[in-house]
């Protein structure tokens, strides 16, 4: 499987969103010399996450549109009191991918390339070595494999979170449902529906991704410090589908669940001369929202552009300093209870266009727009929180039992 002395241009550890996105970016046509690439993915079911949903927004067509499940042009937020705030997207589209469809699409493209090698093995150790880096792996049959490259990109989830001033968990469970009668507007995403009981600490909301007039992914989500039990998630979904959405008779044909750390921790993107961290472990998750996919694409394109030009790859900071500073203030304000989460987000979408809010969340707004957005928030509590942040210590946070990226 691996020949002694072989050194590839690039070794990628992990075949999820980050690993496959980087492999796709590195192998797009146009390079003067195709880069030799090894993609290693674990065969162990216990180390591979279940099929999951990724959502993001994009202007125009994208590289992965062939795998899209759906896209929408309108977003809706429901306040606690039933207020409806709806925004139309002009140039952007809110898009949904399923991980299995994405993996099949990109995997089939990579499998057809002679300079790409796909290896099923579990990377136990990655390390810098003379002239590059190597991954020490074991196959399902117990064989030891060493994969060497001039550069190694590691997307495996971290075992611990870096110290942070504020950390909340975005945790959720969702059902794919089919109703007996039309129940959904298939052109509108219910981005946040706060007509659900709120926890004592943090916030909760419903999230509805319609896949037709009778089909949708319906999720119950919390931002809080602790997770719920499985019966608690199911009870919350029962209440939301029955009493709030009033779906009537329906069947649930599959489910998904996940946990995403929302933290102002500082993630290292480079470990030594040739080992780089990508994806969530490299800080791609937006601290205040949990969205990851768009930042992964920016990272991947930047790395690919450098390597294909023969330059040293330097992973860009996934989110700008100003955006991270604003996120840190929001996380702390939510964590302390200084701002009411449901009222905060409802007010934000009421005062700002949906497209502007999404562009801010992608780090594509200028200073003036960020100031206007800041003025749409509770200014006093936010300023008080911003003033105390520099004096707060960074502390460890227990890593959740599972992780999924949205």
TrEMBL record:
Q: Which domain of life is it from?
A: Bacteria
* One Pfam family this sequence matches: Lycopene_cycl
Q: Which InterPro entries match?
A: FAD/NAD-bd_sf
Q: Can you say what this protein is called?
A: Lycopene cyclase
What organism does this protein naturally occur in?
Streptomyces smyrnaeus
